Amino acid sequence: MAKGQAQEREQIRTPLQNSRRQSNTKMKLTRCGKITLGILMMVIAAIVIGVLVYFIAYGKTPFYYHISFKVNNIDYDSKFQKSYSQEYMDLNKKIVSLMNETFHRSKLRRQYVTSHVVQVSQSRGKIVVHIVLKFKSCYKNNAAKFRDRIKITLYQKLMGNTGSLQIDSFSFKFSDIAMAMAENLLNTCCGRRTITPSGNKIVGGMNAEEGEWPWQASLQQDNVHRCGATLISNNWLVTAAHCFIEVNDPKNWNVSFGLLLSDPQTQRTIKDIIIHEHYHYPAHENDIAVVHMSSPVLYTSNIRRACLPEATFTFPPNSDAVVTGWGTLKHNGEIPNILQKGLVKIIDNKTCNSEAVYSGDITPGMLCAGFLKGRVDACQGDSGGPLVRENSKGIWFLAGIVSWGDECALPNKPGVYTRVTYYRDWIKSKTGL
Ligand code: 4AZ
């Protein structure tokens, strides 16, 4: 019934009323249209911004290339085999500036990301430099064209002015390289990490961050954490001999990498465990072993090796060092899931051997670190893990291997470590490193 009355009212409207109503409807439509148009434009703008952000942030594909060339005015020296040597670092600096200069001044400046010397070999007494270059581009479907542009840009530069480097442009080689292999090469240098932890200032330590201690490994027996270990190459680890007192069959052991015990990033089985021939439990001397993994790990920003110091190197007493591990947070306490770090000081053997401390038990192959007041220390389950020290150039060296101590963090009972420099030649004799 309500509907019928409305229709009647509609019929008795005057023409003037009708025309007003029509123009009202038009106005309403126009206002409505404007709002709709506005919304539509906002949606389009949001989509465009979204697509742009996506392409800037994610849409670019990484491309990696391996190049090499001979440098006629640099004689080869075995120091180029050590990525922490001054010779290697100076050469890398020169090469990186040459690459930056080449690409920053070219049309590829927005695509060029980074370059790094990954190896130095020799040819007729001169050095051959191997470099990995990283680019980012949206040219997914035109990789060949992109590759050619890079190759030509490089070749033109190497033929022209290369500053203090006399480059043999005929020796120039260029090839594509897969991402995992390139990242592996880019992360091969020892003792370097990609992250700078937010705070630096175990027992008395704190949670570590992802990638902060990329050489730390967990040695596991039937998938249960037993000991720490340090990655020293892509297939060798160094640890403590006493980790294998009960079980020394490699079949029972595996190794895992990553910040959390519950979420390993990489795992490997073990093919060989080499225990120091003069380690005799329960004596603490020669508490060192090297562990050969069944297959090499690929280096990433979170899995890298620590540098081994030269046998002649001395870590100064009272200097800072860091011990890391998944050991208990107090004597007979619980094992944490997240890797812990503790800042300690290196203590000289004389002080550590004093009556009040370990009264003569510290031999030259041992190194003490911690505080005579206690507080920060390694504990059960940290054994075999690293004590590392950073040099003035930000490169981390393995100073000690967690070995023993009287309980954990007690006053006058600092942690005792296997002194890595003392066993440097032994490590080389077993691993070739
Ligand atoms: C252990 O039992 C252990 N406070 C390791 C290190 C220390 C003590 C005990 C040093 O594995």
Task: Please characterize this protein's 3D structure.
With 433 residues, the chain is an alpha+beta fold. It has 7 helices and 17 strands. The strands form 3 sheets. A 6-stranded antiparallel beta barrel has the order 12-13-14-17-16-15. Strands 6-7-8-11-10-9 form a 6-stranded antiparallel barrel. Strand 15 and strand 16 (396-404) form a beta hairpin.
Output the number of helix runs: 7
Strand order of the largest sheet: 12-13-14-17-16-15
Radius of gyration: 32 Å
- Helical fraction equals 25-40%
Order of helices and strands: HHEHEEHEHEEEEEEEEEHEEEEH
List the ions, cofactors and other small molecules found in this model: 4-(aminomethyl)benzoic acid
Number-wise, the strands total 17
